[in-house]
Amino acid sequence: MSTAKIPLWRDDRFWKIVLQILAVIVVVVIVDFFLFNLRLNMARRGSTFSFNFLSSQASFDIGEALISYRSSDLYGQAFLVGLLNSLKVMIVGVILTTGLGITAGIARFSNNWLIRQIVTLYVDLFRNTPILLQLLFWYFAVFTNLPKVEDRVLIFGSLYISNRGIAMPWMGSSTVAWLSLLGLVGLAIAAFLVWQQRTKIMVEQGASGQNLLFVLLGMGVTALVLLIFGLQWTFPVINEQGATTGGLRLTAEYCSVLLGLVFYTGAFVSEIVRSGIQSVAKGQWEAAKALGLNSGLLMRLVIFPQALRVMIPPLTSEYLNLCKNSSLAIAIAYPDVYAVSSTILNQTGRAIEIVLMIMATYLIINLLISLFMNLLNSSVQIKER
To answer: Domain range spanning residue 134?
Structure first.
């Protein structure tokens, strides 16, 4: 048996290591070239790379803010206001998009012809129309044409709709209200676990799970009491000048951005849900029906959990797209992080620093979403022995 050593230049492992080292060297050289170019150009302009401008007075107003902000505050505070406005769109948008996409995706399998055609029309219309055009439609064609504040539409006695946005009842800001909200979240989690246990008993033992049904009923009554009395609702009041006090006010710009992103991304999510459900083998449907499961249990216990393994990776991409598309809010004057940063850039001239801040902001948000979705994806995958 030959024990001759393989020459180094013919060793595949050697060349793999060499090529990786060369790739790192090339990247370092390119980055160093751009950094040298940056330092040279900034030196010619007589400026230095610094974020000290964030501690200077902003001197501009922001029309919508989740935290206290005045024009006399610092640029750092203004950037934070824009970031929170963006997060408000992203978080609520992802939640509503998920609900709309799942509902529309499952509705594609409805036995009702009209429902199927309506959902198909929705998907085809919103998927094939540019997102920027949809944002402009919601703002200029819908909210701008709503009645003025003086002629506002009143719904359910406490919901106001006008061309300035929507004003609705909202929970109070006291400690009792926040504790009640925390209690509602805890009850929702507990009810979900109890419902799962009841379903397991019904499927495996054929029992009705009546005792657990009474537990769920008690939880529902407790949640209803907390919802009505614990949250200490405040109701909107609009004065003669059109200013709103109390309740929650959603501006026309925010509503337009939110609806545009939700309906656009929801159309893509519905197709992901539809294709994920269709990827489940036909035998799984037949086996579930043979066990006597009704359509609701069949979808919730058998089909949808298996479809998640196919759905989650493309869903991650859609959530990332929603967050990045939120930067288009500048087109309808919603003060998100991109719009506020653009104003700061125009006033300070710190283009490099501002661009890096915007890039880092979206990068961190998207990496956090990817991390969460990867963890969720790992939890639903089949664990092989």
So the answer is: 75-170+234-380
